[in-house]
Amino acid sequence: MNALTETATSKPLDLAELRTNPESYFEGDEISFEDLEQAILAENDAFRADLSTDKGRKAISSFARQCSTLKTALDGAGKQKVAVIKKQATAIDARRKSLRDFLDAQRDTRRKPLDDWEEQEQARVASHRAIIEDMIQTGCVGFNESSESIQKRIDKVTAIDASKAAMQEFSETAAAKKTSILENLSTHLKQAKHNEEQALKLKQLEEEKAEQERIAKEEREKREAAEAQRKREDDERLAAEQKKAEEERIEREKEEAVAKARRKAEEKAEQKRLEQIRKQEAEEEAKRKADEDRAADIKHRKAINNKALAAIMEAAGIGEDRAKKIVTAIASGSIPHVSIKY
User: Fold this and answer.
1) Helix runs in the chain, H state only
2) Can you list the pairs that 317-322 forms with residues at least 24 positions away whose Cβ atoms lie under 8 Å?
């Protein structure tokens, strides 16, 4: 227990009494959490038990369970107290809602005559402003708008009643706008009529020009048709002459082709005959050359063999017959790993 707690608390908390009457913990500020904490810690310090005996171990279990029991009792007491407070709060909220709904409804009831008047007043003012806005929009003339359409705008604006009785406090504004818009529309109407007269004259001139161009086009087409007819006749005559010339050319080409084919056949036959002669001469020449090559090769081999024969006779000291057999065996490949280089 620290010095501050000892000063604030006059006497220690009786835990036995608190366990009997847990509601006292939530009544006023007589029992603080520090009081409970110090009492529990003091009880811990005072408790003694022997772990070596069954009685001692049971005492420890019972001592620990006292905290759970006290917790359940205190928490339950607090929960009951909160339930009572919540029930009171619910009743108060219900009464608050009832008085809010009632007084809001009474406020709306008392204000309804003013709201109805303001709504009617807004509708009246909006109606007058809509009339003036419609009159302004009617006075807006589109680009190249016809005089007939502008006259309809003038008739519509003229029919608008801008009197005090009709427009009330907006009558002066409506009358001024009406006068200004009608003047503007009248100016547009005069300009539109002038433009339409000019357009009508231009259209008449264009129609006259178009008629002149049509007549000129017909005459031009007639001349072109006559020229085309003459051209067709000239083309037909030229085509007939060309056809005849083409037929004659084809006939000449056929005759020339026959003569050319005959000459080609004769040349081919002559060429074939000459090729046969050249081929025969080439074969004879090839045979002659092969015979010469074969004779030269035999002569060459014979000379080398004779040199080998002489060398073997000299080296081995043997006769010509035996040496010839050796050379013949080498030349035919009968002796492995030994050959004659020709």
Assistant:
1) 3-8, 15-20, 33-46, 54-138, 147-158, 164-167, 171-316, 320-332
2) none
Would you state the structure tokens that stand for residue 104, as one six-digit string? 């809001």
Contact status, residue 91 vs residue 85, Cβ threshold 8 Å: no
What would the mean pLDDT of 242-256 be, rounded to a whole number?
A: 91
- How far CA 213 is from CA of 155, 202, 206, 217, in Å, comes to 44, 16, 10, 6
Cα–chain center distance at 289: 85
Tens digit of each residue's pLDDT (9 = 90 or more) over 69-111: 888 888 888 888 898 889 888 988 898 888 888 878 888 888 8
- With vertex at residue 250, the alpha carbon angle to CA 244 and CA 253, rounded to the nearest 5 degrees, is 145
Q: What is the pTM of this model?
A: 0.38
**Burial class of residue 252 in the structure, from the number of CB atoms within 10 Å of its CB (0-12 exposed, 13-18 middle, 19+ buried):** exposed
Give helix 171-316 / helix 320-332 axis angle, nearest 10°: 170
3-state class of 141 per DSSP? coil
* DSSP state letter for 29: T
- Buried-state track 94-119, b at ≥16 Cβ within 10 A, e below 16: eeeeeeeeeeeeeeeeeeeeeeeeee
Distance spanning both ends of the chain, measured CA to CA: 132
Give CA separation, 151 vs 34, 169, 210, in Å. 98, 29, 33
Neighbours of 81 (CB within 10 A): 14
